[in-house]
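Hello,

Our lab assistant flagged a job as stuck in the queue for most of the afternoon. It eventually completed. Since we weren't sure the result was trustworthy after the delay, we are filing this so someone can double-check. Below is the sequence as submitted and the structure that was eventually returned. Let us know if re-running is recommended.
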Amino acid sequence: MKEIIFEKFRNVFEKNLLEEIAEIGKLVNVKAGDVIMDTGQYIKFIPILLEGTIKIIRSDNEGGEILLYYVGSNETCAMSLTCCLAHQKSKIRAVAEEDTTMITLPVAKMEEWMVQYPSWKNFVMQTYSARFDELLKTIDGIAFHKVDERLEKYLKDKAALTNSQVINVSHQQIAEELNSSREVISRLLKQLEHNGGIVLGRNKIELVKK
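-- returned structure --
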């Protein structure tokens, strides 16, 4: 694991911090669909992804959900960091979008490293900044954009994140993540297919390059 950490993060963290991460970090593999963190749980570790993707979801008391953002390779979850610093229970649900490999780090190291290592503090602040921008885009999408525009952005973002034009996802899952209905999403997807933008399959959508 040490070789992987040094290879991926040698330009991100100081050598001493890399040594610490390699010493105390745990390599964890999760399957697509696994719930890594749920609403109401205390954060037990800080995850840093090596491969794969995690989606961060906000739920309400009635079972409604909305996708906030994705966490990809070499990234961590800003909401997890916030809960660690504030010693609060999780306010989000983190689910593996695809098979994912990550390093988990002890929560106790969060504050210690913020003081000890400038590179860790910079990593945390950059994470906050990037996720804040994504949350603003999510809010803008809900407030200012129609569902069809949000759907097209969703498909493009997902394709870019997985580096594949083929997206394995059901209409129901898209509806839940966009806080819409399956009927609306299915109708819009069929319209996109009719216009030549996508090809629909069983729980699969292929984006057509133009």
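-- support follow-up --
The delay was a queue issue, not a problem with the job. The result is valid. The two ends are 41 Å apart (CA to CA). The chain has two domains: 2-143, 146-207.
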